[in-house]
């Protein structure tokens, strides 16, 4: 599939982000999207063809593969990348709403259309919570679906139509495990960045409101 739409989306949101948000965009684009396209897709490209069991019973390999890999790693990563990027659309839509509103009233209603304040601040905070939430949910899904983040060299399968307990071998397990750890680590880094940006914005605007009220009180 083409990932151009994600690149355009992240680039468009980047101009409304804080410094931490720009680091998040760089991590997603360089360490996740590019690694996914350049390397990870090729490693898991023929995962079913390279999954071998020591029996030639028709259908045995297929049911065993489906049991141990109910969802392909690569497709789940693709879904994760899409889900963690789409909350940024909320910010884009909110800025578009501001632009529409100014055109409709034919006057300037905001100091800066892309300035993070008021309603746009709430939208931005919600997008950060959703991003961090999706990351956590997908890490949990990975862990539960594959019984951890390790890739075993050998799995034993006794599901019908296999005639007995058979040994099945996974291709390139060490290489796959290295990239799983890498992608899990970058996912964890993205969670830290999202929560850091969330804390920073809440702290910044809490101080701003406090100082504003303090000045009003003493005037």
UniProtKB/TrEMBL annotation:
Keywords: Cell junction, Cell membrane, Gap junction, Membrane, Transmembrane, Transmembrane helix
GO molecular function: gap junction channel activity
SMART domains: CNX, Connexin_CCC
Compartmental location: Cell junction, Gap junction; Cell membrane
A GO BP entry: cell-cell signaling
PROSITE patterns xref list: CONNEXINS_2 (PS00408)
Residues covered by the Connexin cysteine-rich domain: 134-201
Cellular component, GO annotation: connexin complex
Topological category with respect to the lipid bilayer: Multi-pass membrane protein
Positions of the Connexin N-terminal domain: 42-75
Highest taxon listed in the record's lineage: Eukaryota
A Pfam short name: Connexin
Family: Belongs to the connexin family.
Its job: One gap junction consists of a cluster of closely packed pairs of transmembrane channels, the connexons, through which materials of low MW diffuse from one cell to a neighboring cell.
Subunit organization: A connexon is composed of a hexamer of connexins.
Identification of the protein by name: Gap junction protein
Originating organism: Cepphus grylle (Black guillemot)
Gene behind the chain: Gjb7
């Amino acid at each position: 599939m083409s990932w151009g739409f994600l690149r355009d989306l992240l680039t468009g949101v980047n101009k409304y982000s804080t410094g931490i948000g720009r680091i998040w965009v760089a991590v997603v684009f360089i360490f996740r999207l590019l690694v996914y396209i350049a390397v990870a897709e090729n490693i898991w490209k023929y995962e079913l063809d390279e999954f071998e069991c020591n029996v030639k019973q028709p259908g045995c390999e297929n049911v065993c593969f489906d049991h141990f890999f109910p969802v392909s790693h690569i497709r789940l990563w693709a879904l994760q990348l899409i889900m963690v990027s789409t909350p940024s659309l909320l910010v884009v839509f909110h800025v578009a709403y501001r632009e529409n509103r100014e055109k409709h009233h034919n006057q300037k209603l905001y100091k800066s259309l892309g300035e993070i304040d008021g309603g746009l601040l709430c939208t931005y905070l919600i997008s950060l919570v959703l991003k961090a939430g999706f990351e956590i949910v997908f890490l949990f899904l990975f862990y539960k679906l594959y019984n951890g983040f390790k890739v075993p060299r050998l799995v034993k399968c006794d599901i019908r139509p296999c005639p007995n307990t058979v040994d099945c071998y996974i291709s390139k397990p060490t290489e796959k495990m290295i990239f799983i750890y890498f992608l899990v680590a970058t996912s964890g880094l993205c969670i830290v960045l999202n929560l850091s940006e969330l804390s920073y914005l809440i702290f910044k605007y809490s101080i701003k409101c406090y100082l504003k009220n303090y000045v009003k009180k003493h005037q």
